[in-house]
Amino acid sequence: MSTFRKTISEMDYALLGATAALTVIGILSIYSSGLTAEGVHVSNEYLKQIIWAVSGLAILVVVSLIDYQRMKDYSPIVYAFFLLLILYVRFFGHEVNGAKSWIGLFGEFGIQPSEFMKIAVILFLAQYLSESEHQSSFRRLLVAFAIILVPVVIIITQADMGTALVFFPIFLFMAYMAGIDRRYIFFILAAILATVILTILPLWEQYILKSPTGFLYILYKAPYVFELIGASCLVLGLSAWGWISFK
Amino acid sequence: MSRSSIPERFEDYRSSASGRIRSLSVLSLILFAFYSGYLFYIQTIRGSELRSRATMISQQSNIIPSQRGEIYDRTYSVPFVLNTDSFAIDLVPAELPDEKREAALSSLAATLDMPIDDIRKKITPATYHLYQPIEILGSASYETVTSLAERIDEFPGIYWHSKPVRNYVETGSLSHVIGYVGDITKDELKLMYNQGYKSGDVIGKSGVEKQYDMALRGRDGREFRTVDVKGKNIASEQGIVDPPVMGSSIVLTIDDTIQKLAEKALGSRMGSVIVMKPATGEILAMVSYPWYNPNLFTGSDAGNEYAKLLADRNNPLLNRAVQSSYPPASTFKAIMTAGIIEEKAFPTDKKIRCTGEISYGDRVFDCWTKKPGHGWLDLKGGLENSCDVYFWTVGRDYLGIERIVSYAKDFGYGKATGIDLPGELDGLVPTPQWKERRTHEKWLGGDTMNLAIGQGDLLVTPLQMADMMAMIVNDGVVYQPHVLKEIRDTSSGAVVQSPPPKEILRSRISKETFAAVREDLRGVITEGTAKFPVNTKAVQVAGKTGTAEVGLKDHWHSWFVAFGPYDAPDPADKVVVVVMVEASNPWEWWAPYATNIIFQGMFASQSYDQAVDTLGLRYLVPRQGRIE
Q1: Nearest beta carbon to residue B16 from set A37, A69, A179
Q2: Before B565, cis peptide (omega within 30)?
Q3: SS3 of B280, please?
């Protein structure tokens, strides 16, 4: 009980308030999108959102009761578990919008394990980075990158480029926070920039001139994913060559 | 995060970590500020512009079909065609959930009483995601809509709107004159796109509905609705910006009473009847048997009904009065008479002896009367008795082929009259040149003899026959036959357009000749072949019989063309009647009898049954149905 009282008193109320506000705004937006102008609502999608919000609240309470220091010990297991899960949906998953990334639950509800993979990656990455403080920056960078790369590759082959790309900012921010040498961070940023430019440059006239946000869209389209991968390999290869030449 | 749990030995790490936290906070603040600024820019600075653009894009216009104009008789009091309230049933496929689709479609098919495959043809898998309504049924009754409305929960995505349907009110034998409507075809659209027709239009397919489609169709209105990206309706009120304009009313020259009389006089015999006012060219009645029920084309089974009519050997879709041509036979002797008198080709009082046959070349031509024939006949006697020998002889030896052809054309044969009904035939006047071009054979005296009695290749439509008689009545002038009397504004009833009589033929033949021909035609009734069948006392009739050989044993086309009253001083009081009964009917020489009944009914103001009784023809036509 003391743990509970402690949790209540030490709770980050600003964070809780912001989360609650965002959830309410989200439910209201979904409700209003299901309304016709005369006020007749034609969609009950918002009810689903309320169900998710309530179940999210329950999970929030449960998780906040666990001492996060203890999570450290479990994070490799959680990481491995979700890795197996996304591998499973990669082959046997339920296809939605062309991506095999869903586990079908009862009725219209379904879950996307790649969403949970993000949390597992954050926990495991945090655990690794804090444990490896005294190791060399370069080694930490490589291992950390390997930690995100495994799920990213699996998720890309599910053909869910959008979710896969989210792992890169997570990686960058966490590596920065963990005190990895800034030069590496800048290198990664430069490599990403070079990759994006190399990918979209050939498509400039076709897409970019038509709408300024077009390049965001093309990253999701199947043929361009391969170009993106090709461009990133090229950038990395050139980088490795440059590094070896000028070491 | 509880700070106390971070071990003390990482003091430097903590300090540099807090520096990194600070720089990340600054980064987030900058991003947040940027997004806030952008939000402000979109909402406030460009707000009104973007809002108006959004409504502009999402305003969709919908067409509200106009009502077609109505069609009336010549008195503008008897409606022939009206519009009935009817409903179109639409389905918005995207509003029908996948798992309910099968059940909903099959119960919809049962409610609408139509095969489910017909619905599936319209609601294909390719349309499942569409928010555009698709018309499933164009003519649902009020009762059907009520039964749908009662169970609307079973039919998500089902809507209906009023769609007036043509109601052909007891058109009976007028079906050919009035015609029918149908959906515009791709080929028709290609031809008429420039006249403002568009896909999905209902247009006139035949008769007056086709001829005066532009006047009848009116102008479609438009309503605007606000829709989202997918075309889903989101606005509350449907703004009708441009209301539809109903089509004009058409007033026909048809006299409903005479039409019904003529219809009954012809009865169920294949053929046609025309009653025309020669002073103007107005058609008072036009019957073609068999006719059809145009209401069939507005039902849900229109396709099958149409196919059935097309396959019917008797060709009920054909308007025999203008779209069929036949040899005129002895009626042609009226033209021969005019030619002989006008050209003074043969003295009118000089007699020729009919022995019942005449030899020419290696052939013997038999007069319609067997031996001993008609005996000695002058022109008047020849016409009255319709003696073939007289006209063979005079035609071949005195008038000659050139002049016969010229007179036939003078009377309008070989050329369509230009009546305001679609599909009229030209007929055919054979000439020596025509025969040579066509058969590579020389024109012979025998051909001239055939032509002289209206046989052979000569073909005229019943309407041309009516015009021929109109010329005799009008002393050489023919007005274009027409069925349109007036176009009237629907709401005010005011006459918008009333075409004046249009002269199409003017002959140089003298008035005296026409008077002589009229007198001879009167003789046909008083002394000649039509003495017994045309016995009406109500009016003085003059006319000519015709019995055309068509190669059937003991079956002939039966013609009668007449005008009356013979003695009326005012030409405006006269009417021309043409009756044509095809040889495919059981032979009863019906044309003169039918004409007799029509004249009796018209001039004694009697119904068909009264006229039959007055004329003593009851033994020929047993009463049908209920006796009143």
Answers
A1: A179
A2: yes
A3: coil
CA–CA separation, B178 vs B213, rounded Å?
Answer: 11
Residue of B nearest to A12 (CA): B1
Closest residue to B2, CB basis, from A10, A37, A176: A10
CA separation for the pair B241, B239 (Å, rounded): 6
Task: Work out the average pLDDT over B186-212.
Answer: 84
**Cβ of B20 and A176 within 8 Å?**
yes
pTM higher than the cut 0.80: no
What sections of A98-211 are H helices per DSSP? 113-131, 137-157, 161-177, 182-200
| Domain ranges across chain A | 1-66, 69-180, 212-246
The H or E element that residue B204 is part of is strand B202-204
What is chain A's length? 247
A157/A162 Cα distance (integer angstroms): 12
Distance from CA of B234 to the nearest CA of A (A): 5
Question: Which member of B13, B20, B236 has the closest CB to residue A38?
Answer: B236
Band (B83; pLDDT cuts 50, 70, 90) = confident
**Tens digit of each residue's pLDDT (9 = 90 or more) over B84-132:** 877 888 888 877 888 888 888 888 888 888 888 888 888 888 778 777 7
The Cα of B98 is separated from the nearest Cα of chain A by a number of Å equal to 13
Determine phi and psi for A101, rounding to 5 degrees. -135, 15
Please list the residues that pair with B158 across neighbouring strands: B91
CB contact under 8 A, B2 and A133: no
pLDDT under 50: residue ranges of chain A? 38, 107
Is-contact B392 B454, C-beta < 8 A? Answer: no
Distance from CA of B40 to the nearest CA of A (A): 19
Residue of chain B minimizing CA distance to A38? B236
What CA–CA distance (Å, rounded) separates B291 from B287?
Answer: 8
Three-point CA angle B435, B438, B439, nearest 5°: 80
Residue B283 has φ and ψ, to the nearest 5°, of -90, 120
Cβ neighbours around B236 below 10 Å, total: 11
Instruction: Decide if B628 contacts B574 (C-beta within 8 A).
Output: no
On chain A, the residues whose CB falls within 8 A of the CB of B2 are 10
Q: Residue B461: name the closest of B321, B288, B266, B262 by CA.
A: B321
Nearest CA to B541 out of B563, B519, B515, B523 is that of B563
User: Which one-letter DSSP state was computed for residue B294?
Assistant: G
Average pLDDT value for chain B: 86
Cβ B559 vs Cβ B579: under 8 Å: yes
Distance, in Å, from the CA atom of B584 to the CA atom of B511, rounded to the nearest integer, reads 39
Who has greater pLDDT, B204 or B234?
B204
Place of tokens 């008193």: A9
Q: What's the rounded Cα separation, in Å, for the pair B247 and A82?
A: 71
Q: Where are the beta strands (DSSP E) in B439-537?
A: 477-479, 484-488, 495-497, 503-506
Contact A179 B13 (CB under 8 A): yes
Q: Which residue has the tokens 């049908």?
A: B624
Residue B7: its chain A contacts at CB < 8 A? none
Across the interface, whether the CB atoms of B24 and A176 are under 8 A apart is answered: yes
- What is the Cα–Cα distance from B361 to B381, expressed in whole angstroms? 27
CA distance B160 to B429: 56
Tell which residue, B105, B20, B56, has the closest CA to residue A180.
B20
| Yes or no, beta carbons of A179 and B17 under 8 Å apart | yes
- Please give the average per-residue pLDDT across B376-387, as a whole number: 91
B239 has which bridge partners?
Answer: B224
Residue A236 and residue A188: Cα distance in Å, rounded?
10
- Kindly list the residues from chain B whose CB atom is less than 8 angstroms away from the CB atom of residue A37: 226, 234-236
- Which residues on B lie below 8 Å from A173 (Cβ)? 24
Across the interface, do A38 and B2 touch by the CB < 8 Å criterion? no
Q: Write out pLDDT tens, residues B57-67.
A: 555 566 677 88
